[in-house]
Design a protein that fits this description.
- With 230 residues, this protein is of the alpha+beta class.
- It is built from four helices and eight strands.
- It has a five-stranded antiparallel β-sheet with strand order 3-4-2-5-7, covered by helices on one side. The chain has a three-stranded antiparallel β-sheet with strand order 1-8-6.
- The protein is elongated, with a radius of gyration of 26 Å.
Amino acid sequence: MKSILTTFLLLFAVSFAHAQEEATIPIIEVQGYSDRAIAPDEAIFTIMLQEKSMKVNEAVEVLNKKTESLAKELKRNRIKDYKLVADNYSVDLNRIYRKGVSRDSGYVARQTLRIITNSKNEDLQSIVESIQDAGDMSFNLHFQISEATRKSLDNTLLTEALQDAQDRSRLMAATLGLRSLSVHRVQVLGESRLAPRMKMAMSASADNAEMTINPDDQKITKRVLIKYTY
């Protein structure tokens, strides 16, 4: 605890020192931007499983059987190039409230399953059918830009954002009649992503549900903040 407090005080002191320093020197701040509109390359089916039972092991066993059933259906339908991921597993008391009074009635087991595949996978419709055939399940489907794709663009976007900030600073210097600018501090503000415009939810009980989806491009934006002295 003492170590954490010391670290916090040190960071506060450094931040305060920087603020004091910048208050005594002339500074201009410039933000630089870079963005790309990219077609989503990843499709994710999210399936929420829930089972109630008076015994923990019974609820867990049902969830396990549902997961196994889905895995078998995906294999039976010869789905290619996908990952079946199970996470967010939990078991809680099934607490019921009536007229301000609570009582426990067994347990609730929950599990999230995700089927991750390429957005252009020709088996998307077959995945829907596999979920439907696996049992009492509902799901939602969304498209996104994969982590690998975003990482491959990171350096390019950062370079362009820095160049954009530099171009803006030169324009400001020329307009304001400043003879020279010197970089004082550079801060990467991070990456922002627009949420997918297309998001589809379907029930596993839907009959003959066809996949006719063309997701919109998503935009990735990198931002930097550069402080110049003059």
